[in-house]
Specification:
Layout lengths: L1 E6 L5 H11 L7 E6 L10 E5 L1 H6 L15 E6 L1 H14 L8 E5 L2 E2 L5 E3 L6 E5 L12 H17 L3 H7 L18 H7 L4 H9 L4 H22 L10 E4 L4 E4 L5 E2 L4 H11 L5 E2 L7 H12 L4 H13 L4 H16 L2 H4 L4 E2 L5 E4 L6 E4 L1
Parallel strand pairs: 1-2, 1-5, 4-6, 5-8, 9-15
Antiparallel strand pairs: 3-4, 7-8, 9-10, 10-11, 12-14, 13-14
The structure holds zinc ion (ZN).
The site of zinc ion has 8 residues, from α7.
Length: 372
């Protein structure tokens, strides 16, 4: 089964790709594919209202007495429920996606009923997942709840014929099950931590003869998210650095134990980072000209620049730390790791050391792999 993820224009592309990088890792019959939202169908129909808590609490799904997810009152940009699915349908036509393959709009905008995921009530396989506002809650990494919701889609499609069936079935009292109705975004944390499905839902999965391989794939995602969240949670009492992987052919840097969290280094940052990884004992800035050829080779690979003169000019500047360019590269690397993990963990990956002395990266090299 193919599941097509459509990036709504306001969703940052890095964030979109990071979500895809995580969900794409789990092999099985369900394949996730990504598409840009066609420009002419951009989600530009957002409306803005001040959402008062009381008012939101009274909002219900049409024809269902279900109270929806709650947020604090503040001006909220949101999309009308039906317009979300119009966008899915437009993308479906644009990309010639067959009717039986789900199309999921990933959007930063909230929606009329303030749900964090939902589906077309008309029975079409059009869905959405809200990627915004998670950082206001309990998550270290917004990819976890989003990927959880995406992973649940194929299983839910096998468990329920319609969105109304699913909403009617939801457990109103939380059981730590995929089908708990989470009234607030923070409630989804329980599902993520248990990574489980309750006995009633397991029976329903059996009765509906859900594809065991799909079930297994969904459970692998749930379990992996749970493990990654535990790994992150352990940072507070046992700061253990994640393994680091440089996918050299694809020129990407990942923290393996955090669901291959990609560190978005640019080509020069990758060059300098990779170079210092090669020298566990460190290299002083003054010794860099001795390594000019090695740096050029790395930069040629990471920048994919065929113009040799450009490569040598940039590397000569780095070797001389001209206008502090090397120091700036090193501080950008530091900032990107600090954005990804707590400071005490980030300290393992950054290029440290005093001026005039050898500079080095502390990480235990047995945790580092470079290659495919
Ligand atoms: Zn259940």
């Amino acid at each position: 089964m193919n599941i097509h993820l459509i990036r709504s224009l306001e969703l940052d592309q890095e964030k979109f790709v990071a979500i895809y990088d995580l969900i794409h890792q789990y092999s099985g019959p369900v394949q996730y594919l990504i598409h840009e939202q066609p420009d002419e169908y951009s989600t530009d129909e957002v409306e803005t209202e001040i959402w008062e808590e009381e008012r939101i609490a009274k909002k219900v799904m049409p024809s269902r007495n279900v109270v929806c997810d709650n947020v604090a009152p503040y001006p909220t940009q949101f999309l009308r429920w039906d317009s979300i699915f119009d966008h899915c349908e437009a993308a479906r036509r644009f990309y010639h996606i067959p009717d039986d393959e789900p199309v999921v709009l990933l959007t930063e905008h909230a929606n009329e009923y303030n749900w964090f995921s939902g589906a077309d009530r008309n029975g079409k396989r059009n869905l959405f997942v809200h990627t915004g506002m998670w950082d206001r809650y309990i998550f270290y990494d917004m990819r976890y709840p989003v990927v959880y919701l995406l992973a649940a889609i194929p299983l839910r499609l096998q468990m329920f014929d319609t969105f109304e069936d699913m909403v009617g079935y939801f457990h109103q009292e939380p059981r730590g099950c995929m089908n708990d109705f989470c009234q607030e975004k923070k409630d989804i944390g329980l599902k993520l931590r248990t990574a489980d499905i309750c006995p009633d839902c397991r029976k329903r999965i059996q009765d509906r003869k859900a594809d065991p391989q799909v079930v297994a794939q969904v459970f692998r995602v749930f379990e992996s998210i749970r493990t990654q969240m535990l790994f992150r949670a352990s940072f507070t009492h046992n700061p253990t650095p994640s393994r680091l992987w440089i996918d050299y052919p694809k020129r990407k840097v990942y923290l393996t134990d955090l669901g291959n969290l990609r560190i978005p280094l640019n080509p020069m940052e990758k060059t300098v980072f990779h170079f210092f990884l090669n020298y566990p004992d460190g290299v002083a800035f003054s010794a860099l000209p001795d390594h000019r050829n090695e740096l050029c080779t790395l930069y040629r690979h990471y920048s994919d620049t065929p113009v040799f003169a450009t490569i040598t000019a940039r590397i000569d500047d780095i070797c001389a730390n001209k206008r502090d360019c090397l120091s700036q590269v090193i501080s950008r690397i530091r900032r990107k790791f600090e954005d990804a993990v707590p400071e005490e963990i980030a300290g393992q990956y950054v290029i440290g050391g005093e001026a005039g002395r050898k500079r080095k990266i502390l990480i235990d090299r047995s945790l580092v792999s470079i290659g495919e």
